[in-house]
Amino acid sequence: MFEQVRMAGAIAAAAGALLCSTSAFAQSDTLREGVAQDMPELMALYRDLHEHPELSFEETETSAKLAARARAMGFDVTQGVGKTGVVAVMRNGEGPTVLIRADMDALPVVEQTGLPFASTVTATPASGVETGVMHACGHDTHMTAWIGAAQQLVDHKDQWSGTLVMILQPAEELGLGALAMLEDGLYERFPKPDYAIAFHDAAQFPAGMIGYAPGYALANVDSVDITVKGIGGHGAYPQTTKDPIVLASAIVMKLQTLVSRELSPLEPGVVTVGSFRAGSKHNIISDEAKLQLTVRSYTDESRKLLLDGIARIARGEAIAAGLPDDLMPVVTVEEPYTPSTYNDPKLTESVVAGFRARFGEERVMQVPSVMGGEDFGQFHRAAPDDVESFIFWVGGVPMDEWEAAQKAEATLPSLHSPFWAPDAEKVIATGAEALAASAMQLMPVSGI
To answer: How far is 262 from 245, CA to CA, in rounded Å?
Structure first.
């Protein structure tokens, strides 16, 4: 509770600082001026990307138009990495290699923002059900800021030395895009980075603010299916059956003890049963029930404890219910899973110090880690001894909406909401400047 109060106070102070500044910036330089000059064109690109979203692994037009822009800037561009991914490389003398990532995919969501450039695109995802498509997670702002940062790094080549690897990643929403690019030779076909940097827009604090979390920033995400078997029969004669609904219910309740009684109170974890399906009629006891779980953790050790515990509890409850060995529950863990995202503490401290100097203390704030998932963590996990990574948040809530929410006059939409419409101009301007500035900081010109 104290942490929530402290955080609310910090956000309020930062919001006040943003309101009091007509420019909303603490410092002026050629990098910021360059972003400002490019904003009309960047906003036109943003509106185009927002109006023409594409689902995961289907980002063909999106990747093509952005690859063309990177190529025009002078990058050596390769398309089709990890199916629809793009890798743009620029070598600029001796020095470290920095990777900057933006994700491209949209979501199967029917847009309800009312924006004049709202998406009317429809598509049929893997579910087989036609749906609207929308950039409900703000990836359109990420891509636009990526282009903005690339342009500034090209324009300021005299201020950095090293190799810049800028990637457009597909299928972040499936948790599969980063792995697809890595398996397609990202670190073998292209320069392996010393540092990997990315940002994500945020729906929980005002536009233009920067949030960060050292260490674990986002969680391991596992999807687990449990098929609970039984012996069906008439609902009036339960003694002749082995009811899988009763057994599955016992499993659901017992699963709650994994976090509360087996995981250390100092280790975060989540075991949520999101789906429970069984039966077809009032008076029939079915012979099967199906559970779907989402499991969240940070460390590999916590992940193993939770997954092993799920399998043990499912089998143990079945034995207690008198099920024979051939009717034991089947537990399936979906692979590949989305690994946790880890912000290297020293890298985080260094980059954040640069952010504070550039944007001002009020606009840069440490925020709590979250149990959401983000496959950016794959880039560090693929080479943990070589690649240090850092992802940060850029607030996207329009100021008037944020103020109304503080007065309980409005409810803020979350990421993935059909109503999510960030203050794109502030997200893009802040994101582009922050990405470019962090890359320049990590690739200093020798002797400076």
So the answer is: 25
The CATH-assigned architecture of domain 2-219+340-442 is 3-Layer(aba) Sandwich (3.40)
Amino acid sitting at position 85 = G
- Contact criterion met (CB below 8 Å) for 107 and 136: yes
DSSP symbol at 199: E
The C-alpha atoms of residue 422 and residue 204 are separated, in whole angstroms, by: 11
Q: Where are the domains of the chain?
A: 2-219+340-442, 220-333
Contact 302, 267 (CB under 8 A): yes
pLDDT in tens, 244-258: 999 999 999 999 999
Return the pLDDT at 448.
Answer: 43
Tokens matching residue 310: 């799920």
pTM of the model: 0.92
CA distance 379 to 137: 21
Distance in angstroms (rounded) separating the CA atoms of residues 131 and 86: 26
CATH T-level topology, domain 220-333: Alpha-Beta Plaits (3.30.70)
Beta strands in 315-372, from DSSP E residues, in sequence order: 330-333, 341-343, 364-366
C-alpha–C-alpha distance, residues 77 and 79, integer Å: 7
Tokens coding 90: 């620029």
Contact (CB, 8 A) for 54 and 245: no
Q: What angle do CA 113, 115, 121 make, to 5 degrees?
A: 80
* Residue 414 CB-half CA count within 13 A: 2
Residues 6+ apart with CB under 8 A from 162: 92, 93, 94, 95, 96, 97, 98, 442, 443
pLDDT in tens, 361-407: 999 999 999 999 999 999 999 999 999 999 999 999 999 999 999 99
- Residues forming beta bridges with residue 165, ordered by sequence position: 89, 99
Side-chain-side CA neighbours of 5 within 13 Å: the count stands at 2
Q: Would you state the structure tokens that stand for residue 333, as one six-digit string?
A: 């863990």
